[in-house]
Design a protein that fits this description.
With 254 residues, this protein is of the alpha/beta class. It contains 11 helices and 9 strands. The strands form 2 sheets. Strands 1-2-3-4-6-9 form a 6-stranded mixed β-sheet, sandwiched between helices.
């Protein structure tokens, strides 16, 4: 359990997220993920990194239980910093990052996927930002890299979801495959990249980041300021408490 890195084939490093039951990462998990991606990219033998997950879904965002257990704002600040570091590690990785998305991709998962270079998804994958329903903001920066502007706004305000097939229509998801074929599909893309000259691939990654129209780091940090404001005002605590009550009620009904 945790963040696992291994060499799959020559030039291909795989970073796996495994935090049962839903891959909602604690603060330490986000920092560990950042370190694993950065270390993989720094290795001169690496030409591409594959980011994947075990379990029911790719990522369920931050660990809300960690936040609720903290009477102050330490957990929130660490989660904010951890997410920022993990998203930045994917974007700034010295080589391309191919992300394989299975099941649900929510909250912080959108930050990872939106900053990736190539996205492959299983046919049961869904993508969304439930932040508004949790009294928080963030990762609209990264959702805007996946869908057109007005759809991004609609998804953000409504906390709605899109399927992998819909994102494939917009061109942000490269390929949609049955879940059993997901790892193979991601590896096919990764091996294609790994067969190129590593010096050229690293230069290409720098060049593409350099011509990006959006500063993803500054944009996301701006969003995080509003999350902190909502928490300081007590709004986020109120909403999270209602969310916990709703979950408890659902469990009793079932």
């Amino acid at each position: 359990m945790g963040i696992i890195r291994h060499t799959e084939t020559e030039g291909v490093e795989v970073v796996t997220v495994d935090y049962p039951p839903v891959n909602a990462l604690p603060s330490d998990g986000w920092f560990a993920l950042a370190d694993a991606v950065r270390d993989a990219g720094r290795d001169p033998a690496t030409r591409v990194v594959v980011l994947r997950a075990e379990g029911r879904g790719f990522n369920a965002g931050v660990d809300i239980k960690e936040m609720n257990a903290d009477s102050g704002h330490t957990a929130l600040i660490r989660a904010n910093h951890g997410c920022f570091e993990a998203f930045a590690a994917v974007y700034d990785c010295q080589v391309p990052v191919v992300t394989a998305v299975n099941g649900f991709c929510l909250g912080g998962g959108i930050g990872l996927v939106g900053n990736s270079d190539v996205i492959v998804a299983s046919d049961d994958a869904t993508f969304g930002l439930p932040e508004v329903d949790r009294g928080a903001l963030g990762a609209a920066t990264h959702l805007a890299r996946l869908v057109p502007q007005h759809l991004m706004r609609t998804m953000f305000y409504t906390a709605g979801k899109l399927t992998a097939q819909q994102l494939h229509h917009y061109g942000s998801v490269y390929k949609v495959v049955p879940r059993a074929e997901l790892d193979a599909a991601a590896m096919e893309v990764a091996e294609n990249i790994a067969n190129k000259d590593g010096r050229v691939i690293r230069a290409a990654k720098r060049a593409l980041n350099g011509i990006d129209v959006q500063d993803v780091h500054r944009s996301y940090r701006y969003e995080q300021g509003f999350t902190m404001e909502l928490n300081l005002a007590g709004v986020a605590d109120e909403i999270r408490a209602r969310f916990d009550d709703d979950l408890a009620a659902q469990k009793k009904e079932n």
